[in-house]
Write a structure and sequence with these properties.
The chain is mostly beta strands. It folds into three domains: about 120 residues, no CATH class; about 60 residues, OB fold (Dihydrolipoamide Acetyltransferase, E2P) (Beta Barrel); about 60 residues, Bacterial OB-fold (OB fold (Dihydrolipoamide Acetyltransferase, E2P)). Helices cover about 15% and strands about 40% of the residues. A five-stranded mixed beta barrel has the order 9-10-11-13-12. It has a five-stranded mixed β-barrel with strand order 14-15-16-18-17. The longest helix is centred in the N-terminal third of the chain and has 28 residues. The N and C termini lie far apart (about 85 Å).
């Protein structure tokens, strides 16, 4: 009975305390209008945007490579090795946004846009990155997945995030090292330089082994030049590739250098596989490399399924 009495006393005390608090609150609220309840409001945190903030869903569509302009293709070729985003806007206010997942160790990786919203002038884009399953058969080469989407009714204040919380940064063109341009070969200026025409402009590229690189070219040939820009703003040719039109898919792989097969091709061992890469004047490119040196190679695949070497560097 004692425990029951104590419980009753505790309940009475709690009731009195609540009444006193309510009385104090009523005294403070005296003379003030009672707040009007929000229709349909329920307890718990709201998932809606704060009152006064307008969020609009934006329709978008994925842009196929064949629908990109030549200028966008050239820039995407430059951006292929870089993770982040870039955008273009035309005179009609149509935006195209390029989003790159960056370097991936194998094929089978992908990226796609899930949603686009305009939030008070901020364009919020959510993307999903996908990876191959454990049992999937994929290309054993480094790849660079990306997506391009098109939309209207937005601003260029972007916030691009993945479902995993990853934030995508704006790509700075000044940070791009490898550039690619499709052009018409005009001829050699001297042993170390050539002249080409790209978009109606004449460009000069330099390379110490230029004679070997262009030995099979004729004036008027359509080619693709991979190049870097020196500290003195000279265009330094890294590789010459067949011109196929469209976007160039750049692949990458690490392996053990095996040596020259001939003046225009080298062999590299990756795991138990031997890969042959073509490069006009390859002998000059691999000078200083020894058998079994670990190297990293960037390359593309020609329409004839040949592996066309772009760059090769020793891995320390």
């Amino acid at each position: 009975m004692k425990s029951k009495s104590k419980a009753v006393i505790a309940i009475i005390c709690a009731t009195v305390a609540i009444g006193m608090l309510a009385g104090c609150k009523n005294d403070k609220m005296a003379g003030q209008d009672a707040p009007t309840p929000t229709p349909g409001a329920s307890a718990g945190p709201s998932t809606e945007p704060p009152q006064g903030i307008t969020v609009n869903k934006i329709e978008f569509k994925e842009v196929e490579p064949g629908d990109l302009t030549e200028g966008q293709i050239r820039q995407i070729n430059d951006f292929a090795l870089v993770g982040g985003y870039y955008h273009w806007v035309d005179s009609n206010g149509v935006y195209r946004v390029f989003i790159s997942a960056g370097e991936k160790p194998t094929g089978g990786h992908g990226i796609k846009v899930i949603s686009v919203e305009d939030n008070e002038g901020m364009t919020n884009i959510i993307v999903e990155e996908t990876s191959p399953g454990e049992d999937d058969i994929v290309t054993q080469a480094i790849t660079y997945p990306y997506v391009v989407v098109e939309m209207k009714g937005i601003t260029d204040r972007f916030s691009i995030t993945g479902l995993d919380g990853r934030e995508f940064e704006l790509i700075d063109e000044n940070d791009i090292e490898l550039h690619i341009v499709e052009c018409i070969y005009e001829g050699q200026i001297d042993n170390n330089s050539i002249e080409v025409v790209a978009d109606g402009s004449y460009l000069v590229f330099r390379n110490p082994g230029m004679t070997n690189l262009v030995s099979t070219l004729k004036t008027g040939d359509l080619i693709r030049v991979v190049y870097t820009i020196s500290d003195e703003d000279q265009l330094m040719l890294a590789s010459i590739l067949p011109a196929t039109g469209g976007i160039l898919e750049i692949l990458s792989v690490e392996g053990e250098f095996q040596g020259l097969i001939d003046n225009n091709s080298i062999e590299v061992k990756t795991g138990e596989t031997f890969m042959v890469f073509k490069y006009t004047g390859a002998a000059g490119l691999v000078e200083g490399l020894k058998k079994d040196d670990t190297v990293k190679i960037s390359y593309t695949i020609s329409p004839e399924d040949q592996l066309m070497l772009i760059t090769i560097e020793r891995v320390e």
